[in-house]
Amino acid sequence: MALWKDQPQAKSSPTPAPAPDALELSGRFESANAEPQPMPAPAIAPAPARTKPLSESLIAPDIAIEGKIEGAGHVRIAGRFKGDVNVRGDLTIEPSAKVNGSVRAEKVVISGELTGNIENATHVELQPSGAVTGDLKAVSLTVAAGSRMRGHVEFGWDDAKGADTHNGAGHKNGNGSGLLS
Description:
By secondary structure, the protein is mainly beta. It has a domain at 56-163. It has 1 helix and 16 strands. Strands 3-5-7-10-12-14-16 form a 7-stranded parallel beta sheet, with no helix packed on it. It is globular, with a radius of gyration of 33 Å.
């Protein structure tokens, strides 16, 4: 925005002289009696892309927490946690940890005990010392020898395709005959 100060003009000069306090705008001098020029609106820069890695939060082995975890970032639980975990990052459950609640995270690594469902994870890794009691739904699943699980498992299905393929190829109405009527 330009600032102008109205200066009384001398009547003897037919050509206006530049005001002593003229402002330089766009590489030229504007006189005090010049027509105001609209300034272009400043361009709004888009928000910078997140380039720094997500931070990790830790629940230490000697801590017990009841509540809810939400947000962006990685979470590592080494103690006891009762409640739901909903993060846009990774969740790691350490060997001595006990978690009771539903989990939503991109990648879930279980070395301790989880009692609750895992919903819509990109990858779930069940370590040899890991135990899950609950349903699991993920794009991919890695199960190590020695791990334990009790519950329903769905992995490798695309949600759009998965609903149509449960009846089996060539089956109409799920009758198992293999004939289309």
